[in-house]
Amino acid sequence: MNSERIEELLRLFNEMAPIARTFGMRLSYTDEGNAVVDLPYNPDLDHALGGVHGGIYATMLDTASWFTAAAAHDLSCWVATSELTIHFLRPVEHAPLRAVGVMVKSGKRQDVAEAHLYDGQNRLVGHAVGAFVVLPNVPVA
Question: What global pTM score does this model have?
């Protein structure tokens, strides 16, 4: 794991990404390089019936899998989500969420990563598998 890359990705998300500030998400990494995205409960992200909106699930799953894939490459490289399949497994009401990314396969042209989404009681509530195209010679902004 490249600590310089991790630091740059943490700065990019936690300090610069408007979506992170708007939603209240925070990014961290495990020692294995898995991205972890935490979201405290935010009632402004609920749908009309009071549960957390599915778009929030999708955003967190994409973010965790994307940042896991991005951490697998050096600073002269970027990745872009090219496909994301999401499984909504359980509704969540009034609870924080945590998404954890896991690299499935890292390649020269494409990465495959997955993410698991957990509620405040550590129940699995969502799952996603993403494909990420690797874009060489595109440095982190």
Answer: 0.94
What's 68-104 look like in SS3?
HHHHCCCCCEEEEEEEEEEEECCCCCCCCEEEEEEEE
Alpha helices by DSSP H, listed for the chain, are: 3-11, 18-23, 54-71
Q: Is residue 64 part of a domain?
A: yes
Angstrom distances, CA of residue 41 to CA of 15, 79, 103, 110: 20, 29, 27, 33
Is 141 inside any structural domain? no
Asked whether the beta carbons of 32 and 38 are under 8 A apart, the reply is: no
Q: How many domains does the chain have?
A: 1
CB 123 within 8 Å of CB 63:
no
pLDDT tens column, 17-50:
999 999 999 999 999 999 999 999 998 888 998 8
- CA separation for the pair 137, 141 (Å, rounded): 12
* pLDDT at site 99: 98
Residue-number span of the structural domain to which 64 is assigned = 3-136
The answer to whether 127 touches 115, Cβ cutoff 8 Å, is yes
Tell me the β-bridge partners of 134.
79
